[in-house]
Batch of 2 targets.
Target 1
Amino acid sequence: MENQTSTPDSGEELIKQELITREELAQARETEARSGVPWYKSLIQNRKIGFETLENVLRYEFHSRSAHSAHQTLGETLLRRKCLSKKQLDQALAEQKRSGRLLGSILLEKRFVSSREIGMALAEQYGAEYADVDQSPSDAEALEAVPESMAVKNGMLPLHLNGDRLVVLVTTSQARERAREAGVLLGKRIHSVMTACDDLEGEIRARYRELAADEPERVIAGAEKPPLVKQAESGAASEDAALQITDVQRDKLARFAEVAKQAEGAPIVRMVATILEGAVNAGATDIHLDPQEPETRVRYRIDGVLHDVMSLPRTQHNAVVSRIKILADMDITETRHPQDGHFSDTLGGKTLDIRVATLPTFLGERAVLRLLDQSSVLSGIKDLGMEKEDEEKILRLVRQPYGMVLVTGPTGSGKTTTLYAALNQKDVMTESIVTLEDPVEYQLPGINQVQVDTDLGLTFASTLRASLRQDIDVLLVGEIRDQETAHIAIRAAMTGHLVFSTLHTNDALEALGTLRNMGIPPYLISSALTAVIGQRLIRKICPECRKPFKPTVALLESLGLPKKTAKLFRGNGCPACHYTGNLGRTGIFEVFEVTSDIRKVILAEADIRESADLSAFKSMAERCRQKILAGIAAPEEYFRVIRD
């Protein structure tokens, strides 16, 4: 690696600061001449200096020598470096003005400068270091830290990995920016070094091929293979068993054996680990592996929106999915039917329960992984982002000894988190609490959780009926899906139990109509129901790139905001938020409390929106507008989430 001026001066700077001796520098340079290992790398490997120290010295030296040229154009920089004459530059600039082509391409075409000279000039412009590709070997650790597809897509060649600092080679300023974004997903601090290379992608692929050729596969200890796969691998099946296997089945078993072997190989194990770690580092809630042509698409759902993060060669798809199925204790030989499984892991300091669901498609098995952070269930009502008056209502409602509280919203709107937050307000030492869930997403200390399993006859209705004989104070029913479950839950609320459950409706007021459509008489609804909470999740503006702007009258009218509103906010995009302008999510809630007046309207079977006094009711649309005015959310979230 070299500075734009020269690396010898960097060595002198290290000596001047008494970080190394002249003899140590001389030995490092001899090693470089003999083996091609860069002198600075020898010093780091021999623990003469640390990587951070070297980087700081190079940065200080560069800025002290070339700060005056920070705003120079490429042509001016090349001219100052005496890489070409003024006449040659003028000739190239005239050609650029005529054709609109890039100056660098013109200079190379006319052979006024070399690729290396342009690379070094660009490095100087961007305040980066320069290194030649052929003088910059890659550590295996660095290559292993970055999936090949990600390296190719972002135009970065991994060189060295030191802790969480990853050094990569790039050829353009755009690639430097993409490398920085990739670092966020990888959980690495990226240090980009400029280079000149006509085919960096080819060099990247070549180094990954060398890595694969040099590295023996390691089988993960403890990974149990399905019996048929072990049988196919060993060839030790009994004669009777062999007679029962057709040639087609034998070929199929052989293919599964090969996939199983590949799935347990080190490259695939690392690939899956990288995908999982990247999702955690990016704050993703879901991972999608979509088989497409010609590559497999890997996407993360971040703050409710899917983002493409990398692609995998189709040749690796089956092995990657099989590796995930092995982790989740699923059958890798079954590819024609959907499967579900789960496994736990600790990633990024978080204990995660990872739910896996596969779906056979025309191009192969699609896999979706949901990442459930166990620490998130420790939140209470006050952590949900409710407005103060709604928060106080909910806290009062969950302290009641009986009644039914429903939470409504689409899939992924945070209903489970709200229900768990409500349960966290209860005293597990003095109250008997049972949950009925499909599936049990989080483990709650001190609470009895029942996994609903329709294949075993454990439906919501049957387990709910059995639970009522268990001397229960508080009951959580994961979802009211049918009339029978609704009837039992409502009767439980009327007989001294506090019942929490969910419904799939667009808002809180629609829950009343949904219960009536299930055949629940109005007198039961009015007697049992105490409140309905409607909710959505909206994205928060990234605090790092949050900027004000003056809204148009048309925008304010569509949002239902006063025309005198002077400014709103949105994020411009930055590395912290993956250039989306949003970082994290918060809830918007509407709390519909069933008062005595509301009960009369329900009994009369009147339209709740027309007949009830809803002056104190604040809808989700109103709450969303409040978040927008407060600068918490961008206006676009209103149109993405709210439907008036």
Target 2
Amino acid sequence: MTVYKQHILKYARRFFIITLPLFLALFFAVLSAHATFAEELTISFTDGLGLTDQALQIIALITVLSLAPSILVMITSFTRIVIVLSLLRTAMGVQTSPPNSVIISLSLFLTAFIMAPVFETSYQVGIKPLTEGTMELEEAYEKAIVPFKIFMAANVRDKDLELFLNIAKEEVPENPEDISTVTLIPAFMISELRRAFEIGFLIFIPFIVIDMVVASILMSMGMMMLPPVIISLPFKLIFFVLVDGWNLITGSLVQSFGVNLTG
């Protein structure tokens, strides 16, 4: 036991001797970089106004980046697309194919394709003037959010919008850009959930028919112990391939949004 402890102490000493210089080098490199960054980034206080505009822009940028996933889900077409693709996978009976990473990636690219005109308009009217210094942050936000409001208003159900307007005790505005963002976003999201479930119901029907036909054939042959899902899965896959399912699903999803894709 004593020899074993000596071996452990020997290897621990070697490990410490080897890693200590590397750790110190890394520590001083980080410290030097931090000092350089501190010298380059200066935060000035003038007349009690607080941080400079540059520091405020950095804080705003970090906040936007941290909320980017939630913003993507709330005000774009991502919700409908990812739910429909997930329901499609469930209807086909394949639990892990395509994997979640593929579904999310496809949803992101379809969202970017659908929202490209909205992103471009928002950039031109709000973000670009802000970066050029010709517009204040608050005004740039009001300008940049208008294209998203128009997109959401074009795809929200009137019943859902009226629900939140009544709860907030607000009148129905004449122009979409006059709708409050706090009211429009939840109405848009529940509208997207409803439409995604409607599309999912239509997707389930042909696959349920295949399951029922296969189950009936197996029962008539007396093979009740054989799971129908195993037999029906290849037929579902070949059916989806023969009807060019991916083309139909993605085309229907893109065309289901009321947005001009030509910009």
